[in-house]
């Protein structure tokens, strides 16, 4: 409940990140150039392996920060991790604006965190 208004979060509780990534790659990345589409598929693989079992509603800024730290500790470059997080941020934006699977206030902290990620 936000501002006295009930918000049904059932769809975001059911939608797993791995399924959202599949939909994103199918509907969004496929409209981009071949090189970009391929690069996003590669970045999505890392996100899917690490956080794919989480529902979109269960992904918190702490979880994203943990993912970021693990990727950096694994030796991935700052730019690689930044691009992976940018993909995740855009996925959330699309889920809110086009798929209507999330309500903005529920995950606005995550998007802010992703947009302000500094290395």
Describe the protein's topology.
Layout: H1 10-14, H2 17-27, H3 34-51, H4 61-73, H5 78-99, H6 104-115
Helix pairs in contact: 2-3, 3-5, 4-5, 5-6
Structure at a glance:
Helices cover 68% and strands 0% of the residues. With 119 residues, it is mostly helical.
Write down the Rg. Answer: 14 Å
Into which percent range does the helicity of residues fall? 55-70%
Low-confidence stretches: none
Summing up helix and strand content along with how strands pair, one would put the structural category as mainly alpha
Tell me the major beta sheet.
none
How many strands appear in the DSSP assignment?
Answer: 0
Strand content: under 5%
CATH homologous superfamily classification: Tyrosine recombinase, N-terminal domain
CATH structural class = Mainly Alpha
Looking at the structure, the CATH topology is DNA polymerase, domain 1
What series of H and E elements makes up the topology?
HHHHHH
Q: How far apart lie the N and C ends?
A: 35 Å
